[in-house]
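Hypothesis: this fold can be encoded by more than one sequence.
Test: take the structure tokens below, design a sequence, compare later.
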């Protein structure tokens, strides 16, 4: 994605849209989850995505007054789904397919936020997008851990 000429407003708009798509995906997927732990995890991630979207929308209304927070923790990247074939999410997808799609989506969102953070490097907005990149990597970790615990352990 070429973001060279993007304004901060454009980055916030795209971020808000991506977060809405993720929120919808996780909310719908949670309804299909067989395992209570998976359902709870997906609902929690969905709430994170909703909070992220709200943050971006607030930033569009008043970018000067966004409160920044810094995430200091290092998030491991399990990379379980990185090499798997990327396919569109089918309405009939089973739980493992949904987890793969979701983890790959989190990676794409993470990579997007890293790209935006680099564009705005040295600014509060750059730091903010770097923090959101870490959040998305944390989501990817949780999803891949669920995939490892539930899907790969059954193989």
């Amino acid at each position: 994605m070429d973001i060279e000429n993007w304004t901060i407003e454009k980055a916030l708009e795209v971020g808000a849209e991506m977060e809405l798509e993720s929120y919808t995906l996780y909310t719908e997927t949670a309804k299909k989850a067989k395992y209570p732990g998976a359902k709870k995890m997906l609902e929690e991630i969905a709430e994170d995505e909703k909070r992220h979207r709200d943050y971006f929308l607030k930033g569009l209304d008043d970018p000067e007054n966004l409160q920044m927070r810094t995430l200091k923790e290092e998030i491991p990247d399990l990379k379980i789904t990185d090499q798997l074939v990327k396919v569109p999410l089918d309405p009939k997808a089973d739980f493992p397919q949904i987890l793969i799609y979701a983890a790959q989506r989190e990676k794409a969102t993470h990579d997007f936020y890293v790209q935006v953070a680099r564009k705005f490097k040295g600014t509060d907005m750059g730091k903010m997008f770097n923090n959101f990149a870490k959040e998305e990597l944390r989501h990817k970790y949780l999803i891949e851990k669920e995939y490892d615990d539930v899907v790969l352990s059954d193989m």
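The chain has a mean pLDDT of 89. Residues 92 and 104 are 18 Å apart (CA to CA).
Hypothesis status: open.
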